[in-house]
Amino acid sequence: MEQESQQVKQPRGARRRARTRANLLVAARKVFAIRGYHDATITEITETAAVGVGTFYLHFRDKEAIFNTVLTEGLEAIRQQVREEIAHEDNPSLPVVVRAIFHQVYAQRDILRIERTGEGVAARSGGPGMLVEMFMRFLEQVVDLSPFSEEEIPLLAALLEGLMDRAFHCWWDEQDEPGPDLMADRVLHVMKHGFPASLFKEPQKPFFAPSAL
Predict the structure, then answer these.
(1) How far is CA 132 from CA 99, 128, 137, 157, in A?
(2) Helix residue ranges per DSSP H, 36-152
(3) 49 vs 42, 139, 205, CA distance in Å?
(4) Which residues lie closer than 8 Å to 92 by C-beta, 6 or more apart?
(5) Largest interatomic CA distance in the chain
(6) Closest by Cα among 155, 171, 25, 12 to 105
(7) Is the pTM of this model over 0.70?
(8) pLDDT digit string, tens, across residues 68-91
(9) Measured distance CA(89)–CA(98) in Å, rounded
């Protein structure tokens, strides 16, 4: 009977630990979104989660550990939701992928703001590589990449990621507008048309004016 009782208690304890960990992550996400990484404290996180500081250390080594976990799990959720949004498409085009990314990133734009506050800490979370990986997988399935070659896929993926990342942070770091559809339209316009042709012509004026004597 005692052995059976222990077998019953163990799953219940595991569920309780999982629930406490989840509550800490929800609380940390709220606190980081308001305070930023550097001003957030473990005490405020535990108070928001209604647990003791000692409980925090049963689940996370320090503030950096929970910060990176918030980012990693948040970004993985975005990745999964993008996959689900385009799952009904047999061969999704670039506009379909871009719009799906904008929709899901907008829905969880607090993750972008949290990531931004972490500076060097956020760089270790693996976040910046998420879009590159998604675009790499997309481009590898495209039948015709002309005028580009397969060797240029990493560069193309990095360019797509850089453009979208700048769009996310230029508009959504401090505000909620424009919405994801308008942002997708603007970015797709730039992707489709590239730089103005006039930029590739011989300059009419010297780029750097001669120094005044």
Answers:
(1) 16, 8, 9, 5
(2) 42-49, 53-59, 63-86, 94-107, 109-117, 120-123, 129-140
(3) 10, 42, 61
(4) 86, 100, 138
(5) 97
(6) 171
(7) yes
(8) 999 999 988 998 999 998 988 878
(9) 13
